[in-house]
């Protein structure tokens, strides 16, 4: 469901908007919001990430020596996911994306829609995130 109207989107976004994602704002183009659903000390972190229309995160890589990676459970609105060297995948509620470690990728909202997903950090050994360059306006406009 595409929606530029934040109030209509809020009815679909069952896990809630959360607070402005200020801790990671430098790695996003546009405004994002984070609603933590678990705590890292619980052994696995799940967070509902909401993107305003046109918002996307930078290219990034989830590194791990063993295990690791990320899972995206798309819950509301419409967005994009793309791995380096591959075409973008359209995201809608119910889409599940499994991102193995060491895969350079980005995700975010479509230009004309709010978007939310639950980001699950897959437990592993030696896990870290590497933030890379922004998705250019040209790359994004071509979708």
TrEMBL record:
Pfam families: AraC_binding. One of its GO terms (biological process) is regulation of DNA-templated transcription. It comes from the Bacteria. Keywords: DNA-binding. Residues 61-111 form the AraC-type arabinose-binding/dimerisation domain. GO terms for molecular function: DNA binding. InterPro entries: AraC-bd (IPR003313), HNL-like_cupin (IPR047263), RmlC-like_jellyroll (IPR014710), RmlC_Cupin_sf (IPR011051). This is Cupin domain-containing protein. It comes from Agathobaculum faecis.
